Amino acid sequence: MDAEFINSYRNPQLSGNWFLDLNPLSKMNIIIILAFIPVFYPSWQVSIGATLFYILLAVTSGRFKNFISPFLKLGLVIGPFFFILRAIFWPGDTTIFNFGIINITQEGVDLGIRYGTIMLVVTAVLVLLSVTIKAQSLTYALEKIGVPHTASFIILSSLQTIIDLKNKANVIMDSQKSRGIETEGNVFTRVRAFIPVLTPLFLGAISEAEEKSIAMDARAFGSDNSHSHLKFLRSVPVWEKLLVVIINLAVISLIIWRFVG
Amino acid sequence: MSYIELRNISYKYPLSKANVLKNISYSFEKGNLYGIIGSNNSGKTTLCNLIKGLIPEFYEGELYGEVLIEGKDVRKWDSNILATSIGYIFQNPFSQISGIKETVFEEIALGLENLGIKEDEIIDRVIDVIKLLNITDLAKKNPNELSGGQRQRVAFASIVAMNNDILVIDEPTSQLDPQGTIEIFDIINKLKQQGKTIFLVEHKIDLIAEYADEVLVIDEGELKHWGKTNEILANKDLLNRGINLPQVALLSHEMENINEPFDQFAITKAEAKKQIAKRWG
User: Fold this and answer.
1) Residue A244 CB partners (closer than 8 Å, separation 6+)
2) What is the 8-class DSSP label of residue B268?
3) Residues of the signal sequence (chain A) (predicted)?
4) Kind of pairing, strands B21-28 and B4-12?
5) Which H/E stretch holds residue B153?
């Protein structure tokens, strides 16, 4: 068997990239706490700056390709949606445009820009977390700080279940199609075709969950022994701990400064 | 004392009106391979669930009688000990994959991780099992992206890695091609030679004839026939119960019909070859 592959399990899981190799909890901490800056300093300039910083982190971690597509897809929907919502409906004194119940004001536009750009930050955070943190590494790190093995299994299993359900829904839709049922076309046709899929999909999922619990029981899931880990992460180095502490202190200081400064 | 004993077992699933198992008694000895056969819905899988201890621990229902493992009632065993001493492989390979591991290698290691076995030992045991099951080509693959047959081999490997003393195997080859089926049966035979006690539900009756020490025939929840494989699988009554006889047993019956019976009734290819060689060799 491939010796390199086997040896990958004898050593900590490292990619060689400084950011990706941070402990998942450190990464989460850094990514999330930085997002508090635009929340407490609400201006479009700060939000755009934070978004650019997250993009830079995606580039530095070598995950830009994985990051940019979902970021644009989500960000370009959520950001403008929040902008439009605020710009159209937020009351204000300085009217820019008025048509029926729509009254666009300068105040609404300003608020819309602020909300829209904050939503870009939120999108960047979520996408960056998903492309730089492997679920398995995260659950390993959580277990190391005392989160029960069952909880980490539920997290990982739920993520896989979403993929499995999607695949099964496609299979059921294909079988419906093979019976001559119209499954493609406009939104109404698709919704009408999708509703009958839900019953077999969820009944199947319930039955499979029962079987899976038996399968996991056969794999000693309920064993009282403390679990070992074939794949493991490196111990968190001192410099990483310092980096996290410094970033946290810096952000907390900025927040305090916002209120007392 | 029998290794595993069923005493007057009757069982009804929750909300079910009729008993799925009816007054079954049998003693199982250590190190034997027991073939469990019967038509669909005859109660084979329920019997497996009972031996595995899932009844009454997991499926509550109404259980009458006793299941004794090494003389102790299954209800008095610690469920964790039962889980680690009795391995269970069932029909659907899709739900036997954990879904949380990135490679087949890690998937096979999952049970050993749960037992808290040291990492180096896990690696050695997984390598051994991968070689035993001849699935080296799958080791690096994502278990969630495998075909049904490949998943079935991985599910089998995952249980073999646990090194349980007792194995309950419910149709392990339902998704496999003929070659894959033969390979799995070779492994089951190796496990038997290692002294494992094996309960095997399988419709491929020729393979049961080849490998089982004893056969239990279940029909509508009742134990209709039981005993040595060569005696049970020679019984034409099985045909009335929707169970095929091994091809060689049918040949042996045909030989009797034309008044040219074999000296000894054959149910396996090896036995038939021997008889044919004796007569015409």
Assistant:
1) A26, A29, A30
2) S
3) none
4) antiparallel
5) helix B148-160
Place of tokens 């090194």: B163
Q: Please list every residue in chain B whose beta carbon sits closer than 8 Å to the beta carbon of residue A160.
A: 99-100, 144
Question: Using an 8 Å Cβ cutoff, are B109 and B119 in contact?
Answer: no
Q: Which domains does chain B have, with CATH numbers?
A: 4-245 (3.40.50.300), 246-281 (no CATH)
At B150 the three-state DSSP class reads helix
The CA-CA-CA angle for residues B77, B78, B83, to 5°, reads 100
Chain B partners within 8 Å of A163 (Cβ) = 144
| Smallest Cα distance from A111 to chain B, Å | 43
Across the interface, do A223 and B80 touch by the CB < 8 Å criterion?
A: yes
Contacts of B48 (CB under 8 A, 6+ apart): B36, B88, B90, B168, B170, B199, B201
Distance (Å) from the C-alpha of residue A205 to the closest C-alpha of chain B?
A: 10
CA atoms within 13 A on the CB side of B234: 16
- Specify which residues B167 forms β-bridges with: B87, B198
Residue B99: its chain A contacts at CB < 8 A?
156-157, 160-161, 164, 212
- As a whole number of angstroms, the distance between CA A54 and CA A175 comes to 43
Amino acid at A163: I
What are B133's two structure tokens?
């099951």
**Residue B79 pLDDT:** 75
For residue range B252-269, what is the model confidence (pLDDT) as tens digits?
999 999 998 988 899 999
- Which of the residue ranges A54-58, B18-22, B56-60, B100-104 would you say has the lowest mean pLDDT? B56-60
> Which chain A residues are closer than 8 Å to B93 by Cβ?
none
From the list A10, A109, A128, A134, the residue with the least C-alpha distance to A68 is A128
Please tell me the distance from the alpha carbon of residue A58 to that of residue A62, in angstroms, as a whole number.
Answer: 6
ipTM of the complex, rounded to two decimals: 0.82
